[in-house]
Amino acid sequence: MPIKTVLFDFMGTCLDWHSHIVSTLPDEIPEHLRSSFALEWRQAYFDANSTRLSQGLPPEDIDITHARTWDEVVSREAFTSAQILLSSPQIKENCIAAWHHQPAWPDVSSALSSLRNKGYEIVVHANGTTRLQLDLCQSSGLHFDALFSSQMLGVYKPAIESYTRVLELLKREPKECVMVAAHAYDLRGAKAAGTNTVYVYRWTDDIREDQQVVKEENEVWLEDMRGLVDVIEKLG
Predict the structure, then answer these.
(1) Distance (Å, whole) CA 156 – CA 140
(2) Is Hydrolase set as a keyword in this record (predicted)?
């Protein structure tokens, strides 16, 4: 069955969230510590979503989740030396807002253009809010045919209902779609729904995953999005 629609996770997969968050944190904090804080904050967000999903709770506004997880990460012993700065309400507010303005990874724009030129639909399917996705499209300069957020769908990925609902809305069979993501949990959910999967490695994400296992789980594992259109054509 030919592939007609390419579904993309957004943050991490298409967008370099890490560099922007690190640049927003106070310069007085050493860069290695800012990087570590950003990575831990991102993982805390994933953990919070997983907890809500396991408890049967609906998606929470991502800004609220980021505010709560910020406080938790700031309190960790690893960031004791920066706690005075990180306890500033203004710094916290600036960093939460920074998630709405992220640059694209350098390989993404051309990959999307190549897919569009081949006639594929390109769609965002990501956790978060619709406002967040609109802001990120504007700040990154990336363009998609549709945006699906966990806020809109009423459930977080990787719940299978998230994927099946998108397929219903797009009127696509699972094998007419491929999910592209830098998150193994996301592709496990997509695979459970029956879609093809392509993993794109980003050093900023999946910091707890064994990449050898991830390679074995998916049809395709890529170091970046160069050549993405070629592998999707082969999958179809």
Answers:
(1) 23
(2) yes
- Tokens linked to 160: 């299978």
User: Cβ(177)–Cβ(163) under 8 Å?
Assistant: no
**pLDDT tens for each residue of 115-160:** 999 999 999 999 999 999 999 999 999 999 999 999 999 999 999 9
- Does residue 51 share a domain with residue 40? yes
CA distances, 10 to each of 122, 152, 163, 190 (Å) = 12, 15, 15, 15
- Rg over CA atoms, the chain: 18
Instruction: List all residues 6 or more positions away from 36 whose beta carbon is below 8 Å from its beta carbon.
Output: 78, 79
Q: In total, how many domains does the chain have? A: 2
CA distance 99 to 180: 21
